[in-house]
Amino acid sequence: MIVDLRSDTVTVPTLQMRQVMLEAAVGDDVYGEDPTVNALQELVADLLGFEAALFTTSGVQANQIAIAAHTQRGQEVICTEGAHIYEYELGMMAAFAGVVPRFVPAPKGVPDPLEVRKAIRRSVHQSPSGLIALENTHNRAGGTVVPLDVIAAIRAISLEEGIPLHLDGARVWNALTALHIEPRVMMQHFDSAAVCLSKGLGAPVGSLIAGSKAFIKECHRYRKMLGGGMRQAGMLAAAGMYALTNHQSLLEKTHAQAKHLGHYLATKGFEIDLERVQTNMVYIRLSDAPARLEQWAAQGVRAGMMTEDLVRLVTHFQITDEMLEHAIQVITQ
Ligand SMILES: Cc1ncc(COP(=O)(O)O)c(C=O)c1O
C-alpha cells in the first residue's frame, strides 16, 4: 500500500472527473472563445463575489500576475514571514514585477494588524508599500487559518492607506471549511484573490485570480507575458468545475484525519504543535528527518520534507481511513 502524504497536490483525477474532461466543450481561450473556461471563470467570480476571474496554469502564476498587476517597480509587498509568494516563488516578485518583500511576523501564520501598519513605508527615502498580501491557509505555518477579525482589521488599514490587499488563497477552501463561512464573507475584504483547484480539490491543473473587471483585464496581459495563454483549456476547466462542485465537501473529513493523525502521533511522543493542526496538515519536528523519511518510504508511507528537521504529513480526499491507519502504524513503529 502506498500512502502519499507529501501534499494535497498528489491526488489523481477521478473517473467521473476524467469523463467531464472528455466531454467538455472547448474553443481557443486566447481569443476568449473557450466556453468551459468562460463558465469556470464566471462560476469562481460569482462564488467569491468578485466581478471577474481569470484561469491560470498554477498558483504561482496566479499570485505573480496579481502582484505585477497591483504594483509598480521598486515598491514593497508586505507579506507574512514564510509567505509562499516570496519563500517558494523563486524571487519572481523581484524578477517579474520588480518589487521586494517586507515581512511581518506571523506567529502560527497570523500577523498582528499593528505589525502590518508598522510595515507601511511612506518616506521619500524608502520603497513605498504597493501591496499587502495575506495567505490563508498559511502553508509554511502548518495549514493554519487566518481568522476573519484579523483579515477585517488588516482590510481597514489597507483602505485607510490606499494599499490594495491580495489573498494567496491556494488553500482558501480549507480555511473556509475550518471557519464554516461562505467564500464571500472572507473575500469582501480583499481586492484580489488567487485560488487553486489542484490542492485538496483534486483537479489536475489550474488556479484562478479573481478581482474587479479592470484588474482582471490587466491580469490577462501579464498572463500572456508569462506564456500562460492556453488554447483549448476547457478540458482542464471542466475538471476544475467538477472539483469545485463535488470535492469541497470532502475537505472536512481530511481535517478530521489530520487532527486524528496529529493527536495520535503527539501521544506517542512526536514533537507536534497541535495548535497548528487546524486543517489538513501535520508538521513534525524530527532531528533525523531524512533517515526517518527513507524508512517510512520503504514501507510505502511518503511524507514531505520541509527542512532538515521538519517534515509534514498532508491529508487529502484520496487517503482512506485504512491508509491513514497504515501510515500511523509505520510512523509509530
Ligand atoms: C500557499 C500557496 N500559494 C501558492 C502555491 C503555488 O501553487 P502552484 O504549485 O500551483 O504553483 C502553493 C503551492 O503549494 C501554496 O501552498
Tell me the fraction of residues in β-strands, as a range.
15-25%
Poorly predicted runs are none
The SSE string, one letter per element, is: EHHEHEHHEHEHEHHEEHHHEHEEH
**Gap between N and C termini, in Å?**
16 Å
User: Any idea what the CATH superfamily of the largest domain is called?
Assistant: Type I PLP-dependent aspartate aminotransferase-like (Major domain)
Strand order of the largest sheet: 2-8-7-6-5-3-4
CATH architecture of the largest domain: 3-Layer(aba) Sandwich
Question: Which hetero ligands occur in this complex?
Answer: pyridoxal-5'-phosphate
Fraction of residues in helices?
40-55%
Task: Give the tally of β-strands.
Answer: 11
Largest sheet: 7 strands, mixed
Q: How would you classify the helix and strand content by structural class?
A: alpha/beta
For the record, the CATH class of the largest domain is Alpha Beta
- How many distinct domains? 2
Shape: globular
CATH topology of the largest domain: Aspartate Aminotransferase, domain 2
Keywords:
single chain; 333 residues; alpha/beta; Aspartate Aminotransferase, domain 1; Aspartate Aminotransferase, domain 2; 2 domains; 7-stranded mixed beta sheet; 4-stranded mixed beta sheet; 14 helices; 44% helix; globular; binds pyridoxal-5'-phosphate
